[in-house]
Design brief:
Rossmann fold, binds S-adenosylmethionine, binds calcium ion
């Protein structure tokens, strides 16, 4: 798993960042702190965090969902793009990684907007559906265990309003999706996910070669 936009040569990627990245000191600090963690490659790329914020703004999102928080970079980007009374339901199973996230959410003044649920994401999504939250979310970002992408997508689609947007990360999986020798469970799950979305008429679809591949699925109105 990589985080930077791997389809670009390094010098062109640096140029892209130099003319478009608007990362502030707090996000930079979060990236620096996360870089000390052995799993830091899981963090979204900074230009991708900025894209997620822009998408949330574009959607006029008030209610958002995130599956896979880690140390909080993407959730911080999305939460900041919500209005003051907006709400982000953030799902993860790790107390320790999300403790870092919570520290940054507080420093950014967005902790009140974020409802962190520490539990397997499927349980959280099902409990939202059972609490009559279906059709009430504007935006979702899926970035957790790849084997469950299709079930997260189905739950997120039910939770979104018509016209709502789901962004799904790592759908190019560093190119492994086209390498027949890669037959591990994660790669197979991503291939199956991509195939399923290709013919899913419930959404408008685009796979962006940004970062490690970001699929956008817009729920038909
Ligand atoms: N979006 C994050 C960011 O910007 O830094 C990166 C998320 S990281 C790729 C994946 C996260 O999914 C990890 O924090 C992991 O603990 C979480 N995760 C893995 N399995 C999960 C599950 N079954 N339910 C909820 N979260 C899970
Ligand atoms: Ca990811």
């Amino acid at each position: 798993m990589s985080n930077k936009t791997f389809t670009l040569p390094d010098d062109l990627y640096d140029y892209l960042l130099s003319v478009s990245l608007r990362e502030d000191e707090l996000l930079r600090q979060l990236r620096r702190e996360t870089a000390t963690d052995a799993m830091s490659r899981m963090q979204v790329a900074p230009e991708q965090g900025q894209l997620l914020a822009l998408l949330a703004q574009l959607m006029g999102a008030r209610r958002a969902l995130e599956v896979g928080v880690y140390t909080g970079y993407s959730s911080l980007c999305v939460a900041r793009a919500l209005p003051g009374d907006g709400r982000l339901v953030a799902c993860d199973i790790s107390e320790s990684w999300t403790a870092v996230a919570q520290r940054y959410w507080r420093q950014a003044g967005v902790a009140e907007r974020i409802d962190l649920r520490i539990a397997p994401a499927l349980e959280t999504l099902d409990s939202l559906l059972q609490s009559d939250e279906a059709g009430r979310f504007d935006f979702a970002f899926i970035d957790a265990d790849k084997e469950n992408y299709l079930v997260y997508y189905e739950r997120a689609l039910a939770l979104l309003r018509p016209g709502g947007l789901i962004a799904i990360d790592n759908t190019l999986w560093s190119g492994s999706v086209i390498d027949p020798s890669c037959q591990d469970a994660e790669t197979r799950a991503i291939r199956a996910f991509n195939r399923a979305l290709h013919t899913d008429d419930r959404v408008h679809l685009s796979l962006l070669p940004v970062a490690d591949g970001v699929t956008l699925a817009l729920k038909r109105a």
